[in-house]
Amino acid sequence: MAFDFPFVKEALTQMFKKSSCEEYPFKPKEAFPNYRGRIVFHGDRCIKCGLCEKVCAGGAIHNVLISEDEEKEVYERTFDLTSCTFCSYCSDFCSKSAIELTGDFHMTGTKHEDLLVKGQYTKVKKKPVAKAAPAAKAESCDNKAE
Amino acid sequence: MFDNLINKSAAKSPWLFHINAGSCNGCDIELVAVLTPRYDAERLGFRLAGTPRHADIVVVTGPLTAQIKDRVLRTIEQVPEPRCIVTMGSCPASGNVFKDGYTYAGPLSKYVDVDVDIAGCAAKPETVLEGLYQAAMILEQKRKDMKNKGGQI
Ligand code: SF4
Ligand code: SF4
Ligand code: SF4
To answer: Which of residues 35-94 of A touch B (CB under 8 A)?
Structure first.
């Protein structure tokens, strides 16, 4: 009699094969290339152009002024990962590559603070002398237009 | 006599109940991926329960719309204590891109105590597994606390 039970051969061979299940919790795993995970903010590169906040659909980026003196203002920028869609627009639009979406996918938390990414950046205040120069330039532009 | 055995087994195998509170389906699909053979959360003890009354961990996806808010809260109330509430994806935790919409009634933490937040849009299955593990740890602690207070589990 032909041995024709359906799937028997398949079942028997699969029994001795390696499981096709992910081994993740027992073996560490890397995210795929270009995976957009936890945000890293390089505050030293930021020039405070504000473009990242404008393009953020989730409204995940907030700034707080933490100190100010005559020369500079220091801001703290918070990326709220519970509000982020990981669209990477902020990073794509940043001309200074100050925002990076890393392959780190370990993004769980029991408190809201666990899912906030913070970084500081500085805005250097323009000196009055420096202010006069752009004004003159603008004037010359107007003249040209006329 | 069996109480100890039951308690130990229950700690090792929390049952999940999944509520879709207006999700775009992205997170739901990832949760299904976690439970099906590729990621197979069942090998770690997590199992999908058919009714909230059997569940230990409630996984909420979606931004909690005005239509579904009362139903979600009623379903969560049906889950017996000790329970653990997990928000999956950005939506239930903050509203994500829907937060300015007129149908948005969240976030979930406004109405119930959320134990674990899983970030991502949609959350990666590995992240979900991590979040569920954290939830199971919290659940075990809650059970112990309840027992110490003299409650019946
Ligand atoms: S992070 Fe980039 S886009 Fe955002 S304000 Fe700084 S320089 Fe501009
Ligand atoms: S990845 Fe998208 S949603 Fe997240 S902070 Fe950047 S722009 Fe906002
Ligand atoms: S977090 Fe993103 S993927 Fe998940 S339900 Fe919300 S919009 Fe969809």
So the answer is: 35, 37, 57-59, 80-86
